[in-house]
Predict the structure.
Amino acid sequence: MKELSLHILDIVQNSLHAGATEIEVTIAENLHENLFSVCITDNGHGIPAKELLNLQDPFFTTKKKKTGLGIPLLKQHAEMAGGNIEIKSEVGKGTTITATFEHNHFDRQPMGNIAGTITGIIRANPETRFIYKHSFNDKEFALDTTEIKTELEDIPINSNEVLRFIQDYIHENLNKLYTK
């Protein structure tokens, strides 16, 4: 995975596999503290303590495939960029994965197409509540699919027109975050 947005997609897919009905993706950028963090929280099944210990091992997975590279790769990329990864989970309540990076580190991966990633997640999982928050220094914006669905009434959130609006909304607000 060459972009952070792909790591986010991988973790969100894990959350969905764990039965999550609500997933929050929070990206925080703080230039004053030279910090870039990605936090994904879900209300899925949670991870038992013995599995939690093995979660960062690339040869451990609970799925049918033989390896679970998503979290170990995220950990490696965080550590290469002066950061780390923290995983908290409680069975029956959910999981939180936080990856931190030095914001200006040469080896920090680029964000990639976060608007496309969030929009794609919503397209494929219209029944799941997604909350996306992004902050840059003292500015922040948020998107909550529950709020959007309330406004839409009978229009499906995964209709092309709505998804185009969501993607444009994300792009517009990211531009506002990064301009003075």
Q: What stands out?
A: The chain has one domain: 4-178. Strands lie at 22-30, 35-42, 84-90, 94-102, 129-136, 139-144.
